[in-house]
Amino acid sequence: MKFPQIPVGQYFRWQGERYCKTGPMTAHASDGSQKLIPRSAQVEPLDAAADTARARQGGTELPVADVAAALAALTGSLRDYAASLEGPARSALAERIDAAERDFRRALSLPGRG
């Protein structure tokens, strides 16, 4: 499957690494770094249901990198939307997204984004 066919927020494997798609050409690696992924890249979608089942298992914690990647996908999508707005609404929404991300990271003791 080609990278553009993966929906934003979907986990996939490319060149032996696990990523979460955050935009049309971007993804977060499991180490939290953001990568540009070529549109021609052949990727392997990972089963979202398996990830959800793993997260629901009793006593199992989600890896920090997975939580950080999911947060990056969410905030990336919201930032893309904010960029489409004009005037004060644009900056107000961008500030709220940044504040919400900081609060979320602080609450879960996640490292800040780079």
Could you walk me through the main structural features you see in this protein, from its secondary elements to its overall organization?
The chain is of the alpha+beta class and 114 residues long. It has one domain. 44% of the residues lie in helices and 16% in strands. It has 3 helices and 5 strands. A 5-stranded antiparallel beta sheet has the order 4-3-2-1-5, covered by helices on one side. A hairpin with a 2-residue loop joins strand 1 (11-14) and strand 2. Helix 2 runs antiparallel to helix 3 (87-107). The two termini are 29 Å apart.
Furnish the topology, listing elements before pairings:
Layout: E1 11-14, E2 17-21, E3 26-29, E4 34-36, E5 44-45, H1 48-56, H2 64-83, H3 87-107
Antiparallel strand pairs: 1-2, 1-5, 2-3, 3-4
Helix pairs in contact: 2-3
For the structure shown, list the relevant keywords.
114 residues; alpha+beta; 16% strand
Major sheet details: 5 strands, antiparallel
User: What order do the strands of the largest sheet run in, or round the barrel if closed?
Assistant: 4-3-2-1-5
The mean pLDDT is: 82
- Which ranges are low-confidence, i.e. pLDDT below 50, for 5 or more consecutive residues? none
Quaternary state reads: single chain
The domain tally reads: 1
Tally of individual helices: 3
Radius of gyration: 15 Å
Q: How would the global form be characterised?
A: flat
Distance between the termini: 29 Å
The share of residues in helices is 40-55%
Fraction of residues in β-strands: 15-25%
The count of DSSP E runs of length 2 or more, i.e. the number of strands, is: 5
What is the N-to-C succession of helices and strands?
EEEEEHHH
Secondary-structure content class: alpha+beta
